[in-house]
Amino acid sequence: GPSVALAGLTKSYGATRALDAVSLEIAAGSFVALVGQSGSGKSTLLKTINRLVEPDAGGVSIGGADVRDGPAHHLRRRIGYVFQGIGLFPHMTVAENIAIGLRIAGERETRARVAELLALVDLPNDAGARMPDQLSGGQRQRVGVARALATEPGLMLMDEPFGALDPVTRDELGRAVRALHDRLGLTTIMVTHDMAEALLLADRVLVMKAGRIVADAAPAQLARGE
Ligand code: ADP
Ligand code: ADP
């Protein structure tokens, strides 16, 4: 996946400064975890990358190109986004939910691609015919990941993807996401409030507080308390 650079990103909501001149370089192909308390600006930072949030100042570039070059919907096809709660459409089957991200004309081609995506996230092919509420929480999160990967993005943004899960499922899904990252050569930025999860999965851990990055280290450094 591509490198990502943030330069002087600032965003306020009224008197709340959600991002305070954040500058950051994320290496191509790395897995970065963004941790910090609720309200520290993690989601806002993530959303400036795929232009769900427009910064007041500063900019974002992906692979050296400014995200404002070109329409936002083109940008978003190159960026997988797994958000909190996942947001599967309850009245659509799993296969239909995944296919939303695809822009393939033929029914047979769509079915083949959905099957590929289900396999990629280790879901059985017959899960495609089910409704989201017929899946476990962990399986639903996997559908969210499959949908995010539908357009073959190089960059994956994940906002508390495992928030609502029990610890065992959480751990299992975390490892699955890391394996996908490695296998597909993605650049991954994952928001989590769980430092243990960040240390386990990421190459680099960024800690946010009040709209700023207050720590930036490799997991081994943080674990030693440096
Ligand atoms: P985090 O993801 O770390 O919980 P957020 O980026 O969601 O933090 O929020 C950072 C701050 O900005 C918080 O104080 C939050 O209430 C505020 N904020 C975020 N989005 C909005 C919004 N759309 N309108 C008003 N305030 C917002
Ligand atoms: P997160 O903080 O991870 O974005 P939330 O559940 O806090 O998740 O927020 C859900 C949505 O509401 C997000 O799009 C966020 O930008 C927005 N939001 C967060 N805080 C506020 C706020 N104080 N006022 C209005 N919108 C907010």
UniProtKB/TrEMBL annotation:
<dbReference type="InterPro" id="IPR003439">
    <property type="entry name" value="ABC_transporter-like_ATP-bd"/>
</dbReference>
<keyword id="KW-0067">ATP-binding</keyword>
<dbReference type="InterPro" id="IPR027417">
    <property type="entry name" value="P-loop_NTPase"/>
</dbReference>
<dbReference type="Pfam" id="PF00005">
    <property type="entry name" value="ABC_tran"/>
</dbReference>
<keyword id="KW-0813">Transport</keyword>
<dbReference type="InterPro" id="IPR003593">
    <property type="entry name" value="AAA+_ATPase"/>
</dbReference>
<feature type="domain" description="ABC transporter">
    <location>
        <begin position="4"/>
        <end position="226"/>
    </location>
</feature>
<dbReference type="GO" id="GO:0005524">
    <property type="term" value="F:ATP binding"/>
</dbReference>
<dbReference type="InterPro" id="IPR050093">
    <property type="entry name" value="ABC_SmlMolc_Importer"/>
</dbReference>
<keyword id="KW-0547">Nucleotide-binding</keyword>
<protein>
    <submittedName>
        <fullName>ABC transporter ATP-binding protein</fullName>
    </submittedName>
</protein>
<dbReference type="InterPro" id="IPR017871">
    <property type="entry name" value="ABC_transporter-like_CS"/>
</dbReference>
